[in-house]
Design goal:
The protein is of the alpha/beta class and 361 residues long. It has 2 domains: 59 residues, DNA polymerase, domain 1 (Orthogonal Bundle); 269 residues, TIM Barrel. Helix content is 32%, strand content 19%. It is built from 11 helices and 14 strands. It has a 10-stranded mixed sheet, covered by helices on one side. A two-stranded parallel sheet has the order 1-2. Strands 7-8 form a two-stranded antiparallel sheet. A hairpin with a 4-residue loop joins strand 5 and strand 6. The chain starts with a strand and ends in a 35-residue tail after the last strand. The structure holds S-adenosyl-L-homocysteine (SAH). The site of S-adenosyl-L-homocysteine has 16 residues, from strand 10 and strand 12.
């Protein structure tokens, strides 16, 4: 099988050229062709000598995953279903806003973490995505969206908030993020690449040391008893450890705060007492809260908190001095909202479909 060059970051590509007896600056040229011009055909790379183009064509390929479908919601949110082989498909979502365009990238086919309110979790886990399959999502979006007028970026932000737990696919995710940050590839600043995690504590420390980007942490509950149920990874890495890792992360983070995501589930985690517990919990962590109205899916067993309940909850946090935003639901008419991404996963874990019933703690 030929080597797919979309799997390589700048350093790896320089190594590839060195091994082939070529100059390291070829890596830069090739990165630009692949990621900035979206070119997959070596014969069209006009500033590479013909013998080199032929050598590359004989030993390597540039292969983004195949798009299965491309759907646009009434609000302009666009979703691509992407084939990643063997019956698996993942989703990537572009969310246009006035001053920016955000791509929500998937990192795994399915997910092993079993968060109770997430539809990806219901599918079970199949496998980690390769670098090419992740960076391929930017490639596909860039090609489909075309260039913006006045050289503005159409795709200005990336959030690793699609299907999967990015920190459970650590090495590939870091390599893909290096390409997102590379000036010869996507050239995004560290503040504009956000990784969202359910809280795998040792991997948060590793990320801080290898590739710090903006961090979002899926908190969803203000105490261990409730979080153990909603986000079961909490049994392994309880809140005290998670918050300590968050504080350590901030030493090297590109922003001086992190984001806590909090899904609003009616009657489960949305009461005044939960808000008060949260205030005490995050006292020592510079942070911002992003409240996410629950996005329903069949047999989820949960309901979205009412607008009033969300407002009351936000007010309590705000009056304690916290910064709070409520995530606008985007693209829910095409099942592209948070937690609705399902793609198609051949479940290796054989997770049974079940209806969960959870009482508030
Ligand atoms: N595994 C990563 C990325 C997942 S998705 C993580 O856990 O952070 C990004 C966000 O959407 C997470 O905060 C996740 O908890 C949230 N989410 C999952 N299902 C949801 C749903 N049905 N409604 C609203 N938000 C949901």
């Amino acid at each position: 099988m030929s080597l797919n060059l979309l799997n390589l970051d700048a350093a790896q590509l320089a190594g590839f050229f060195a091994e082939a007896g070529e100059k390291p600056f070829r890596a830069k040229q090739l990165l630009r062709w692949m990621h900035q011009s979206g070119e997959a055909d070596f014969s069209k790379m006009s500033d590479l000598a013909r013998p080199l183009r032929e050598k590359l064509a004989a030993s390597a390929v540039i292969e983004a995953p195949r798009v299965v479908s491309d759907t646009t919601a009434a609000d302009g949110t666009r979703k691509w279903l992407i084939d990643v082989g063997k019956g698996n498909a993942v989703e990537t979502v572009f969310i246009p806003e006035t001053n920016r365009g955000t791509l929500c990238v998937s990192s795994q086919a399915g997910c092993a973490l079993d968060c109770k309110f997430c539809s990806t979790a219901r599918q079970g886990f199949n496998r980690n995505l390769s670098v090419a399959e992740m960076i391929g999502q930017l490639w596909i979006a860039n090609k489909a969206l075309g260039a913006a007028p006045k050289g503005e970026r159409v795709l200005s932000n990336v959030v690793l908030m699609g299907m999967g737990e990015p920190l459970a696919n650590f090495d590939n995710v870091v390599t893909a993020m290096r390409l997102m940050l590379d000036d010869n590839a996507y050239g995004l600043s560290r503040r504009r690449v956000t990784l969202s995690t359910s809280g795998i504590v040792p991997a948060i420390d590793r990320l801080r040391d290898t590739c710090p980007v903006a961090l979002a942490v899926s908190l969803h509950a203000p105490n261990d008893a409730l979080r153990n149920i909603l986000v079961p990874i909490n049994r392994k890495y309880p809140l005290a450890e998670l918050l300590a890792a968050c504080r350590r992360y901030l030493d090297k983070a590109p922003r001086d705060f992190l984001t806590f995501e909090y899904v609003m589930l009616e009657g489960v985690n949305d009461g005044a007492e939960h808000a008060r517990q949260l205030i005490a919990l995050v006292r020592d962590v510079p942070c911002k809260f992003n409240l996410i109205p629950f996005n329903p899916f069949p047999n989820s067993g949960f309901k979205r908190s009412s607008r009033d309940a969300i407002c009351r909850f936000a007010e309590i946090l705000i009056s304690a001095g916290l910064v709070v935003t409520t995530r606008k639901t985007r693209g829910d008419d095409i099942d592209a909202a948070c937690g609705q991404l399902a793609g198609k996963v051949e479940d290796k874990t054989r997770r049974t479909r079940r209806v969960v019933e959870i009482r508030p703690c």
